[in-house]
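Write out a record, fold above all:
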Amino acid sequence: MSSKKKNIYIFLGKVILITLLIVLFMRCFLIESFTVSSSQMETTLHKNDRILIDRTAYGIRLPVTFLNIPFTFDNIFGMKSYSTLLQMPYRRLFTSQLHRNDIVLFNNPTETDKPLDKRTLLLCRCAALPGDSIEMQEGIFFINKKEYATSPNTTEEYIIESSDNEIIKETIEDLDIPLRNHYESANVLHLQLNRYEAYMLKESLPDSIKLICCSIDTTINYQFLVPSKGRTVAINKFNSLIYKEIITKEQNDKKVTVENRLLLIDGIKQDKYTFEDDYYWMISDNSTNNMDSRHLGFIPFRCVIGKALTIWYNPDKEMRDNRCFESIK
């Protein structure tokens, strides 16, 4: 090989290496692409949407796991693509707080068997901030005693009672409303609609046809406070079970139990507790297909990665034409 060709190859190798390092730096600290893999944020976001995540929005979370293969999933051919031999403590630079209704990317807090930055990624809307009071009364969600205003894109399950479901389907098609997770039983059609779609359908259906929202459970009632860093709360029989899980994670070197609805740490009864992190209550826009705080509990700030900014691509042509580079709200 001539020295000229050798110099060209060396130069190209350097360019490729520097480019990969720049991309890796941007993915780790500034901005990254994320693929929406479920329908839990419909209709704000659709499955297979490629979106950009601003990793600086709430402060830059430094990597915890350093030994891993860049630009890969956490598993390759059934094997882990990372090693836990070198783990760094949790650190965040230029910390900034979340805002209500932000759509946030975070790690699943329940996967305690994995390193913090290798847990499953989830995307939800921030409904309540540290220190907020949350109350559910007869299916109505309140934050700080005020009814929570859901996003217009939030989907609910509806039922349509009609003797001719084909007419209903034709009406839905004329209104360009997608049939999401629909199924039929007798003279009833079940489907998911957001509030605008439900309004259009009500206006277009004959008076004899009933459109009913059936996804709100009016039997579940609860009330609690979202924990905040440095805040001390009285522990009693009403909230001991609610806070047990996050106290267990914060006191990971101690034994936390609840006996007769009383909180014990290393066998000592606790009348009060001071939280070590801020926590948030995350809600999915899709009320029937979700993985959010109703299943995961409080989301600690340490699990937060960044804020969803914009949709940059979707492989579906119709989606791509209408939503490319659309900001996320």
Observations:
- Helices lie at 3-29, 165-174, 195-204, 240-250, 293-296, 317-323.
- The chain has a mean pLDDT of 85.
- DSSP finds six helices and 27 strands in the chain.
